[in-house]
Design goal:
This protein has 215 residues and is mainly α. The protein contains seven helices and six strands. The chain starts with a strand and ends in an 8-residue tail after the last helix.
Length: 215
């Protein structure tokens, strides 16, 4: 008699019960989207067009989320998925996969490729692979770490996404940080450069968004 490596339910055979196998499948399918969702919590870039900028208020900017940076880096989501895929391939007598180039664009493709490959092999893993329980726990941990950043339980901490900050910094570059309007607030404050948008400016802010939309 075996037990499920995730929920410890007794099994006649295999290493993951059907419910935990399905939950792990859903987590793997969500992993590329979870990886992309962390982008909002990185340091802003300067890719937006400098069409509506002014000098921001002089305050120290908030740092990017270190947890988000770690999860988006090589040792985070992409490394965890690829390491599990490599371990599974070794145990099946297959060659190790070749990793893509280590840049941001490559990471997104690698997360999708590794998650997809694990999905394809999940049925075999659940039935025959003894580390399947630890693998499922790791997928649950990864999802929990991402959600603790991008979707905290208190909605006041999340706020409504309102596009990108188009204020110019002191070097003449567009801030580019994600803007969020929090419960109880009327003005919109950029958490990076600290520029304050009054309600009368919201339509103009919307007009000058890089994609012409407010998310």
């Amino acid at each position: 008699m075996n037990i499920c490596g995730l929920c410890e339910e007794q099994l006649e055979h295999g290493h993951l019960c059907p419910g935990c196998t399905l939950a792990t499948l859903e987590r793997l399918n969500r992993m590329p989207g979870l990886w992309r969702s962390l982008e909002d919590f990185l340091a802003p870039g300067s890719s937006a067009s400098p069409v509506y900028g002014r000098t921001p208020m002089v305050e120290a900017p908030l740092p990017a989320s270190e947890d988000a940076l770690s999860l988006r880096a090589v040792g985070g989501i992409v490394g965890t998925l690829e390491d599990w895929y490599s371990a599974m391939r070794v145990d099946r007598g297959w060659a190790r996969p070749v990793k893509d180039r280590p840049d941001g664009e490559g990471f997104a493709a690698r997360v999708e490729a590794a998650a997809r490959a694990l999905v394809v092999n999940l049925e075999w893993m659940a039935a025959y692979w003894w580390p399947a329980g630890e693998f499922a726990k790791d997928m649950r941990r990864l999802e929990g770490e991402v959600l603790s950043i991008v979707d905290p339980r208190d909605p006041r901490e999340r706020g409504r996404r309102f596009g990108y900050c188009v204020a110019l910094n002191q070097d003449g570059e567009v801030c580019g940080a994600v803007l969020r309007l929090y419960e109880g607030e009327t003005a919109l404050t950029c958490r990076w450069c600290r520029y304050v948008y009054q309600p009368s400016e919201f339509l103009l802010l919307h007009h000058f968004q890089p994609d012409q939309t407010v998310a």
